[in-house]
Amino acid sequence: MRNSTSVVELRKLLRDRLPQVRLGLPEPRPTPVVATGVPALDRALGGGLPQGGLTELVGTGHGSGSVQALHSVVRRAAAEGRFVALVDGADSLDVDALEPEELARLLWVRCRDAAEALKATDLILRDRNFPLVVLDLKANPAFELRRISAGVWHRFGRLLEHHGSTLLVITPSAMTGAALARVRVTAGLGLDASAGGPAAALESLRFEVLRAVEMPAAEGLDARNAG
What we know:
two-stranded antiparallel sheet; seven-stranded mixed β-sheet; Rossmann fold; alpha/beta; single chain
């Protein structure tokens, strides 16, 4: 008489004895990342900005800490001998906050409005010479940001995926639909942190992950509780 073992039992047997058959595909590789140098931000993102994609950093209000995070990205890249392209949407970068050797590794694109910044970012992403690009829209007025179509972010996403570049977009509110990861600053700079210098300021920042990059379970991180 033919064995009446069900399909469910057969699948369970395979899972128990041949776990590699369960997937039928190679184990997923962790997403390569670019460290920002901000301890809590890197922990929240599983090591840093996902390479080949767009990360949105949301910083609401003055003193949120997004500026310090931007400076840290530039410092970290310079320390590793890499170049960064910063598209400054409102020409608001305080160059006095950065050292000459850090500025030497920075392409600073000074823009008058968000529309100009988006055009500059598009050109830089197509150029391929800058593996790390930062688009700072934090200081741009809301009416400019509302005019940005969703298609812009999806076009950026395709360029990043194709070229393997990394884009960090700093915004005052969540707005980039094509972001692989989105993080919001939840604790900014206190008086004690500001008086303690750049290192203390970075240590005081806290972040909430609003959208996370999918990672293998063994390498995942509960980023909401990080930091």
